[in-house]
Amino acid sequence: MKENAIVLTGGMLDTSNAKTAHGLIRTSSRYNIIAVIDKNGAGSDAGEVLDKTNRNMPVYASVADFLASGKAKAKYAVIGIALPGGVLPAEMVVDIKAAITAGISVVSGLHRFLNDMQELVKMAQQHNVSLVDIRKPRSKDQLKFWTGEIYNIPSKIIAVLGTDCALGKRTTACLITGAMQKAGVNAQMIFTGQTGWLQGHKYGFILDTTYNDFVSGELENAVVTCYKETNAEVMFIEGQSALSNPSGPCGAELLLSAHAKGVILQHAPERIYFEGREEEKIEINLAREIGLIQLYGGKVLALTLNTHGLTRPQADEFKRLYQQQFNIPVILPLEEGMEELSGVIKNYMQA
Description:
CATH architecture of the largest domain: 3-Layer(aba) Sandwich
Distance between the termini: 41 Å
Oligomer: single chain
Number of strands: 13
Shape: globular
């Protein structure tokens, strides 16, 4: 049975900073999300705010308002934001304290650990609830070194990379995994971030909490374990950041250590600069990202577009231009679904 949970977003529900909340609103096999706490979205349905799809998931301005509504009791409050540096905004502490006082345990995927905040620890003890920091690194004796066993895995391994952070890489990985499963293919997803864990995916690890020496081994171990337990025909690995993002370069591990030879590349056409690097004017370059993937021995099977900030005609025009420029399929996952991309993956598996 999934436990009831509310999601705290600190007034950022309609921004990319709430990407953890967005993932939980869409799906979670770990928690039953019954409400979202967001002062700016209060009175709305969280699904309507996210993608205009009603999910019967009300938004309340505060934990106090949620409690006063008399809705089903929540066992957990999940922090649903991910800011640069994993910081915890001071204003969110009010809702965290309210949750603890109401007997609700708090789950956080931030780099700022709740268990390092002595006031919260004391309150949690007084009210007999837990503070769960899922980004807390495991001890070194629990971690794996890379062995080369990945080369013995016969599955097709596909990395879902992106040209920046917070683009929807995890969402696309979830969608294509589900679509392939519905088509009768034994497909599995490997998560690499805190939201994947919160959503309840079985195979993976949280990359940015792992000591650097062990990242390659943990990635390999996740893929190898998944294959041994499921005999997966294809595995989709959630990417992080981008190969050429100077504030958080990532992706080479998936191509090298996880032996991913196929790539789905997520891109947001309206973004000019890397997120958080607008002042330095460090530009995103789609052609460069494709070239880097090729240099690492990967093949971009398709581009998937995050169309935030675009009208549908604008999105369709970018699709046409990119297909013409790069001669690869371009898909709009949320607008068009996964049928075309599923066909691309099936063809790749049969090649």
